[in-house]
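Ticket #4471: structure output looks truncated?

Reporter: J.K.
Steps to reproduce: submitted the chain below (339 residues) through the standard prediction queue, then opened the result file.
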Amino acid sequence: MKTSTSVKPVLALTLGDTNGIGPEILAKAMERLASTLPCPVIVFGSLSILESMRQFAPKMPALYKLESLDAFDPERDGVPVYEAGCIPPPLRPGTLDAQAGKCAATWIEAATKAALAGQIQGMVTCPVNKEGMLLSGCPHPGHTPMLAALTGVSECHMSLFSDQMRIVHITAHLSMADAVKAVTLDRVLCAINAGYATMRRLGFDAPRIAVAGLNPHAGEAGAFGLEEVEEIAPAVEAACEQGIRCAGPVAPDTVFQRMYAGEYDLVVAMYHDQGHIPFKLVGRDEGVHATLGLPFIRTSPDHGTAFDIAGKGEAQAGSMCAAVELAAQWMLQYPENKT
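Returned output as attached by the reporter:
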């Protein structure tokens, strides 16, 4: 990779499942952000498939094939596409395809290796189909567990960000039975610390963090479950002893509205849907998913492959644009890239 006099960090954009809306929203995002993106990008994906999306984004910047990451020149005009030796199947929008899943996984792995080697400093991932990835032989059902395995990180956290809502989950894709078992003091405290560090990086001097309860009414002092008493409250107390402004456990049916109204800056959620449902109700079009705890920055739009509208030109790129802008903001403000 050639050295740039600008010393700007490089952002990877992975194409995701080619039969979903990933190629379309990426093309639209590049068209919209072409004149404002403050750092160079490399697309990890298929040049031909991304080029075919020009029908939906006619002003997308010119693309060119990047044969090797070592040949990347950030001063060259146009957007480089690195295919990582993966040839996707013919485009069939809305179709589950194991080979498409394999390519999605290959591009994620290639971008991760580039990040660990210092060739890129951040990653924005287009949606993947979890079933497609598993059908391809990939052992990981989605980005978060795959990135954790590839980087050797034992604990990373799914999080959601918008202007008025910021949510960190203590776990990601677990069954409800397993998610309840995972509510432990150590996990809750780890998520509080990850959220606190991220909010500090976003410019909050003393972020106000609320920790949601698991049970109705936050357990009612043990009447509806003991997780709040035995695990969540002790984690909140430990965080406060560290100097973090932290409240909880707060009743989960009110805590997200209270954040939205401005009382809290961030909420720690106890399981996937507890955080995702309120967030997608109010912030879906502009919301961003981020994985905290990785050795590099990673964001993504907060929606899936949307097979039902793939190939129709109907996909909205707002969340993808927000994901790119947030990743670029973090990369430029904090070049050490510790998330």
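Triage note (M.O.): checked the attachment and the full token line is present. The two ends are 24 Å apart (CA to CA).
Status: closed, working as intended.
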